[in-house]
Design brief:
The complex is a heterodimer. By secondary structure, chain A is mainly α. Chain A is built from nine helices and two strands; from the N terminus they run ααααααββααα. Chain A folds into two domains: 71 residues, no CATH class; 125 residues, Cytochrome c-like domain (Cytochrome Bc1 Complex, Chain D, domain 2), CATH 1.10.760.10. Chain B starts with 20 loop residues before the first helix and ends with a helix. The chains are: A mainly alpha, B mainly alpha. At the A-B interface, helix 1 and helix 2 of A face helix 6, helix 7, helix 8, helix 11 and helix 12 of B.
């Protein structure tokens, strides 16, 4: 087998010993003086190039970093001003529709027509267009037992959706979904206020689901 | 091959290699076994890209799991074992003393590979984590870090107890890799598996880990091999070596910051992808210096230098392409297409593997004190893997660009895109088949060499220990 066929010169040829390898390279990076006692300098063009890259990189970073703000997701964006976030009000109708689709629509249907015999309709329901006090309580604590809607009796159980329940909707979301439902299917423009929801909740606390008979005693 | 060593021939068989023979052969052997396993899975996942029903009924080999297997076997099995073996060997030789605490390395290697085996079984049975590059089951990961520390111990001792005051680039890269893996892996385990961060920070940490595995651990080991082997093969000092320290520090400091290029458009703060662009631009300096240092590899004719040349070109091309595609305007076209896997293949199979192949082909004859038993198999391996990498990278790149052109037109139905990609994906599978065939050849050549060395152990006159005196 000739040496040219070998994938590697193999252990019996060594153009450069480990010692020569180390000593030679040490001399290049200036740790050792050459024969004339002089040290080598780093090549300046490469240093300039490196500095140039750092300069360009720094400029780019300053321009497109969004001031390193954790809430800027667009490289052209600016960090939000203090207090700006609080000033943006959420439209209760938009929020309410979201909550309705996520929480309520499974039973009451996206059309608000319900699904007899268990789930009563919201559209045209006297409970929706009626007392604010009652409908807030239904959403906060749920409802069980028979209930008469538009002359038809429905028997089902509606789970509580208020704070601390399985759905754990905040008072803002309860107010928003009620505002949406009352406008959409009861024709009532007046929004349900967050304060009213909080007030009812403060009065009733956490309690068992209501029955229709109990609710009818409330004005 | 059986000629006794002459006086000149003894020079490159270091007196220190004899004691390290079996631990280093064990590392190289396990690396090559994982390489073949990984290539087999790469072929399988490649076939699944154009024929999705292939082995789809076997839950362990469905695309998601096979992909995780492939990635884990390649990174931690093949590149990890091979890189650590080369790193230890280089640190030992340049340290000027025989490697100490090698029994730790053997125990570490055994546990590392057992851990990987159990990890792969875990992945196959569905208990992998959800993080790319870190899919190994939770319970295995601390074992692997501990095993790695044991494997790295001889290297750390050789670095700390080195004879010369001055150090060489190969030592910096190898020592840095040995120290950096336990650091970043324990950090990412802590924040991803044991007390998980919430929300989007998880993605950031997982991408950082995946980038660090390559940029801070495997690539430095591969570069150490290249820095050691290229001057040994050409017999010349490296040109432009003055800037090597700056290139080293550039990679170590900014190398892992480039992970943000994968998160463009994601719900991460804008500065993270921007930082990745800047880090990529700074790395251009690293690539330039690597080119200046390694260009001597184009002069020689040995197979080892062929690997190194190929690896060098692939490394530079990946660096350029990754820099260009890290800009948001370009990423719009390449992100989420097969162009990403094409670049990954170019980096891992083209650059990383080739540097490691070059290192192994150079290392084994010196560690065993004998020539490769089947030199034609090694040359065959070189031709096949180079062909395989070129074919599979070009076909994936073609598929990626075709995907971009089609996906950005909302009228094109998705099924139509799949039909159009069939041709490049078939080519990709052909490339993966060439890689598998080549890697099997290398494993066979390795086993033959190790076996003949084992048989001749008792009587061999080529034992470096005896020729050193």
């Amino acid at each position: 087998m000739s040496a040219s066929q070998r994938p590697d010169p193999g252990p019996d040829r060594s153009p450069l010993s480990d010692d020569a390898l180390q000593a030679g390279h040490e001399q290049i990076i200036g740790k050792q003086p050459d024969e004339k006692g002089k040290y080598r300098l780093l090549p300046l063009n490469l240093l300039f190039l490196f500095s140039g890259l750092i300069f360009i990189g720094g400029t780019y970073l300053g321009r497109f970093s969004g001031h390193f703000h954790p809430k800027v997701f667009n490289e052209y964006g600016q960090p939000p001003k203090a207090g700006a976030a609080a000033a943006v009000a959420v439209d209760p109708l938009v929020l309410g529709k979201n909550v309705y689709v996520q929480v309520c629509a499974a039973c009451h249907q996206p059309t608000g027509l319900g699904l007899p015999p268990a789930f009563p309709p919201l559209a045209g329901s006297e409970w929706v267009s009626g007392s604010e006090e009652r409908i807030i309580r239904i959403v906060l604590h749920g409802l069980q037992g028979p209930i008469k809607v538009k002359g038809v009796e429905y028997v089902g159980a509606m789970p509580a959706a208020g704070p601390g329940s399985g759905y754990n909707l905040s008072p803002e979301k309860v107010a928003a979904v009620l505002t949406y439902v009352r406008k959409e299917w009861g024709g009532i423009e007046t929004p349900v206020s967050v304060a009213k929801v909080a007030e009812v909740r403060g009065k009733e606390g956490n309690r068992q689901p209501w029955t229709a008979a109990e609710l009818e005693k409330i004005p | 091959m059986s000629t006794p060593p002459t006086q000149a021939s003894a020079a490159d068989a270091s007196p220190f290699d004899g004691g390290a023979r079996w631990p280093l052969t064990l590392l190289a052997g396990s690396a090559l076994v994982w390489l073949v396993v990984g290539s087999l899975l790469a072929l399988l996942t490649g076939i699944q890209l154009h024929t999705p029903s292939f082995l789809a009924d076997c839950s362990a080999l469905t695309h998601g799991r096979a992909q995780a297997w492939r990635e884990t076997a390649f990174l931690y099995g093949w590149a990890g074992n091979a890189g650590v073996g080369l790193g230890l060997w280089i640190l030992g030789r340049l340290g000027g003393h025989p490697l100490r605490a090698l029994n730790w390395a053997v125990v570490g290697t055994v546990f590392w590979n057992l851990g990987l085996l159990f990890g792969l079984i875990g992945i196959a049975t569905g208990s992998m984590t959800g993080f790319a590059g870190l899919q190994l089951p939770r319970a295995v990961q601390p074992v692997l870090v501990a095993a790695f520390c044991a494997m790295a111990l001889p290297g750390v001792l050789a670095w700390a107890g080195r004879k010369r005051e001055g150090t060489y680039a190969a030592q910096w890269y190898a020592a840095a890799a040995l120290f950096l893996l336990p650091w970043f892996w324990t950090a990412t385990q802590a924040v991803l598996l044991w007390s998980p961060l919430r929300g989007v920070v998880q993605t950031v940490a997982a991408s950082w880990h995946a980038q660090s595995v390559v940029a801070l651990w495997l690539m430095p080991l591969a570069l150490a091999a290249a820095y050691y082997v290229i001057p040994k093969q050409t017999g010349k000092l490296l040109p432009g070596y003055d800037s090597a320290p700056l290139a080293f520090w550039t990679l170590i400091v900014v190398g892992s910051w480039t992970f943000g290029r994968h998160l463009i458009g994601g719900p991460v703060p804008a500065w993270i992808p921007t930082m990745a662009v800047v880090a990529q631009c700074l790395l251009l300096f690293h690539f330039l210096v690597i080119w200046l240092n390694f260009r001597g590899a184009f002069a020689g004719g040995s197979v080892t230098l062929q690997y190194m040349r190929f690896g060098l070109v692939a490394y530079l091309l990946t660096g350029l392409a990754e820099t260009i595609t890290s800009f948001r305007g370009i990423a719009v076209h390449t992100q989420f297409t097969l162009f990403g896997p094409a670049l990954e293949a170019l980096l891992l199979q083209g650059a990383l593997s080739m540097f490691l192949f070059g290192g192994l082909v150079h290392q084994l004859p010196r560690v065993t004190g004998r020539h490769w038993a089947l030199p034609s198999f090694v040359s065959g391996h070189a031709s096949l893997v180079m062909l395989g990498v070129v074919v599979s990278v070009l076909s994936l790149g073609w598929a990626g660009l075709a995907q971009d052109a089609l996906l950005n037109h909302s009228q094109t139905p998705f099924a139509e895109i799949l039909v159009q990609l069939k041709m490049p994906l078939l080519l990709h599978s052909a490339g993966q088949f060439a890689l598998l065939a080549g890697n099997v050849l290398l494993l066979v050549a390795f086993l033959r060499s190790a076996l003949s060395c084992c048989q001749a152990e008792g009587a061999s006159v080529l034992r470096p220990a005896s020729s050193a005196s």
